Every structure is written in C-alpha cells, then in structure tokens.
Amino acid sequence: MSTEITDNAEQSRYEIRLDGELAGFVAYEPGEGTVALVHTEVDPAFGGRGVGGSLARGVLDDLRARNLSAVPVCPFIKKWIEKHPDYQDVVAA
C-alpha cells in the first residue's frame, strides 16, 4: 500500500492518500513562521490503521524541514505530540 502526504496549500490542509485515495487531512492556518494545526480528520473507512498517526508525523516532519513551528490546536495533534516527545522541537514556544 502506498502512502502519500501532501500539502494542499489551496485548501490549507495536509492530505494523506492511501493508494491514491484520500484517507484524511489536517486543516491548518498559516502564520508568520508558524502553522496552526486546527483540525484532523480521518475517513472512517480507514480507521484503526494508524492513518492519523502517520499523517501527524508527516505534517510535523514537513514543518520541521521547512523550519516552521507548529501551533497544535487540534486535540488529536496535541495528544500525538505528547506521546512523541521527539517532536517537541517543532512546537512553537
């Protein structure tokens, strides 16, 4: 199964696709040097497969690579970061 995470800037969201099919997204609001992660949604058809976690990791990896800080507003993203302290460096101070 191929997994692709892309930044759909036109819709202000990161999307995850599994074998080309949209499985979920993280909506965001860009700021100056930051990106507020406001909502995560995974299609119920893909539930229980770790799609949300893969999406969170992909989003945060992209922000880190772009030297941007995350402002986790979404409860799912907040919890995911708590469980993965190696991503604390991406969180805005």
Structural notes for this entry:
This protein has 93 residues and is of the alpha+beta class. It has 2 helices and 5 strands. Strands 1-2-3-4-5 form a 5-stranded mixed β-sheet. The termini are far apart.
Can you describe this structure in just a few lines?
By secondary structure, the protein is α+β, with helices and mostly antiparallel strands.
Count of DSSP E strands?
A: 5
**Amino- and carboxy-terminal Cα gap:** 37 Å
Derived from helix and strand composition plus strand pairing, the structural class reads alpha+beta
How is the largest sheet built, in terms of strand order?
1-2-3-4-5
Radius of gyration (Å): 12 Å
As residue ranges, the low-confidence spans are none
For the biggest sheet, the summary is: 5 strands, mixed
Query: How large is the share of residues in beta strands?
Result: 35-45%
Number of helices: 2
What shape does the CA trace take?
globular
Chain-averaged pLDDT: 97
Helix content: 25-40%
* Succession of helices and strands: EEEEHEH
How does the SSE layout of this entry go?
Blueprint: E1 3-8, E2 13-18, E3 21-30, E4 34-42, H1 51-65, E5 69-72, H2 75-83
Parallel strand pairs: 4-5
Antiparallel strand pairs: 1-2, 2-3, 3-4
